[in-house]
Amino acid sequence: MQRLVLKRKEFMLLQAFIYEHIGISLGDHKIYLVQARLAKRVKALGLESFGAYYDFLVADQSGVEFEYLSSLISTNVTSFFREAKQWEYLKSYLPTLLEKKEGKLRIWSAACSSGEEPYSIAMFLKEYLPRDKTYDIKILATDVSSKVLKMAMRGVYTSKACANLDTHYLKSYFSEHPHESQRLYHVSPSLKQMIVFREFNLVTGDYRLLESVRFDIIFCRNVMIYFDKPTQNRLVERFYTLLGKEGYLFIGSSEALTDMKKGFYSKSASIYQKV
To answer: Which of 106, 143, 216, 221 is an active site residue?
Structure first.
């Protein structure tokens, strides 16, 4: 099969579909990135053009192809305990939070990717919660991609993925298993039982499913940079509604609410509290 070239008209169709269903706003300069990421999939399906792929995508009622598209377009780059300053802030604030909430915490990892973020949250709480009390803690971890969610639920990570994780955490919360030419690290059941994984689309998802919960902390890091301003605004408004009084929103260090604060005030770079 000859090399596939994404034509401008085909790109515009895919561009509109991705924006409507995933929320990612792709500028016109992203045409070559989309071509590179989708070409292999188009060939694997035996299709002769990106236009044929678009027709296949729209006609698919099973949701399987949308899942492939989401995984290929989304950037699932993550790591354990990323954004170190946020963890330091949370460490200093945790005693006050526990006192205010009387030991009950609800936390949402809103774009959990392959699971490093929610497992980091669970490890952090295991480390810094006082040992002499019992707590009611639930962590919701969601992502648009069921592919990465399966990886997260499995909780198995390579040496490379754990390279920057402190040895203490590896020994305390993982079991090591040799596998072929590498080592794999399996998350302990004690962490897994703290987390509920669910597939959820931040742009098109039914937020009524979350209305019964008032979160104390929402992590949504390095996601809004892919959305345009109207989508960012709607998302921030939804987070505001779902956060409890004085709840926290943690975003990526490359992001800022700036003109979208709408009831939040900045506590530190990339950390916002609901008024």
So the answer is: 143
pLDDT at 28 over 80: yes
Which among 112, 145, 146, 142 has a CA at the least distance from the CA of 222?
112
221 as an active site residue: the answer is: no
Instruction: Name the DSSP letter for residue 182.
Output: E
Helical (H) or strand (E) element with 158: strand 156-158
Q: Is 246 left (phi over 0), alpha (psi -120 to 50) or beta?
A: left
With CA atoms as reference, report the closest residue to 173 among 151, 146, 193, 203.
193
* Residue 209 burial (CB count, 10 A): 10
Least-confidence region, from 174-188, 230-244, 253-267: 253-267
Q: What are phi and psi of 220, to 5 degrees?
A: -140, 85
Q: Which of 251, 253, 255 is nearest to 272 (CA)?
A: 251
Residue 194: per-residue pLDDT: 96
pLDDT, residue 254, reads 82
Q: Among residues 37, 82, 234, 238, which one is catalytic?
A: 37
Q: Is 143 a catalytic residue?
A: yes
Tens of pLDDT, residue by residue over 120-148, are: 999 999 999 888 788 899 999 999 888 88
For the chain, domains (ranges, CATH) are 8-73 (1.10.155.10), 84-156+188-274 (3.40.50.150)
- Alpha-carbon distance 143 to 124, whole Å? 21
Q: How far is CA 57 from CA 25, 26, 69, in A?
A: 18, 18, 9
pTM value is 0.84
Q: What pLDDT, on a 0 to 100 scale, did the predictor assign at position 132?
A: 75
Residue 68 per-residue DSSP state: H
